[in-house]
Amino acid sequence: MTQFFLVRHGEPQWDINEQYNLKGHGRDLVPLTDSGVDQAYAAAKDHRLQQAEIILSSPYTRALQTAAILSKELGLDIKIEFDLREWQPDLTFEYDSLDRLKELGDDYDANHGVYPPGERRLWESKELLKKRMDQVIDKYSGFQKVIITGHGMAFRTLVGEVGEIPHASIIEYIK
């Protein structure tokens, strides 16, 4: 059995998205706020992370920056796994505002991440998201303790948690 420590990224600078009118994956390039950096340093002090062997990270800036802080503080290598990216709210990559992101997220939540019978939605289904997360996790089953830096919706879907996961919080997940 492998013990995974799912560390949600620190608080991101979302206002950059509106400042530069970013859309699609461009919205995932924002760095952490100063508070988000402090959150990542605080997470690195958690005793549960001290015996980890490797850090896996989403390719998105906020998760990578969190992973870099953990790597520096814990002396661990980082392996970037593309399929640890956040839930895809719009598979056409055209969404361009927090309002649209909220609308898509609310629709996902209202449908419990499942496409209604005979319908297709813009967002990635819970089944697809969980499948890609599980595929990454399965690759690291030879380790005893693994840190994953990633995203709230992806982690919620993986562990079946309902509600918002706080920035830089740690969830233990055994598989």
UniProtKB/TrEMBL annotation:
SUPFAM superfamilies reported in the protein's UniProt record: Phosphoglycerate mutase-like
CDD domains for the chain: HP_PGM_like
GO molecular function, one term: phosphatase activity
Record-linked SMART domains: PGAM
Residues that, per the record, bind substrate: R62
Superkingdom field: Bacteria
Listed GO CC annotations: cytoplasm
A Pfam family of this chain: His_Phos_1
InterPro entries: His_Pase_superF_clade-1 (IPR013078), His_PPase_superfam (IPR029033), PGM_Phosphatase (IPR050275)
Protein name according to UniProt: Broad specificity phosphatase PhoE
Organism the protein comes from: Paenibacillus typhae
Upper classification of the organism: Bacteria, Bacillati, Bacillota, Bacilli, Bacillales
